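WARN retry 2 of 3 for item q-0093 after timeout on previous attempt; input resubmitted unchanged.
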Amino acid sequence: MVFILATIFSGIGVLPPGMLNMNAANISVQQGIPQAKKFVYGVLIATLVQAFISYYFSSFIKQNPSVNHDLKFAGSLIFCVLTLFFLYKGIQNRFAEEDALLKPKKSNLPHFSKGILLSSLNVLPIPYFSFLNLYFSSLFPYYQSITNGFCFVLGCVFGTAIALYLYIYLFKKVQNKVSFFIKNINFVIAIITAVVAFFTLYNL
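OK item q-0093 returned
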């Protein structure tokens, strides 16, 4: 169950158009799927490290019950902020041109190295994964274990891979019809984060 939830939520975190997925999509369209896969492999290596750090960081926090409740409350507020952010991005993308959304800056780095670099520079997954760990620990008794840690890290990598592969395959096949997807995916994510925030606050 931990693996499934980690896969779902990590995939949700990568779905909105951003630096990583739009680079993957652009490489797929301009240079082909095999080259885009090299970029994805680099991203996944960095994601593996970030998920591992997040799990043990949240384990440390979990050992301090006095701050655990406050952190869960803060996490629910973060999801509220994310809801507003995705709504804003959805509205912004409604008025953006498709070409502008699919033009990441060019780089001379090998795609594999570029994937590692860009994913490493993106530090947002660490607090996001950390909050997910705290949330999961409130759902499952005895959550802090080697098995659950392995399932969480693997789920984060798998979910990220699924989201990125959706971009590199879908953009390659329907590159002339991506405008609708880009301009509306943020609204879908906003609904999901709003639901999560509501249930998190309800269960406090």
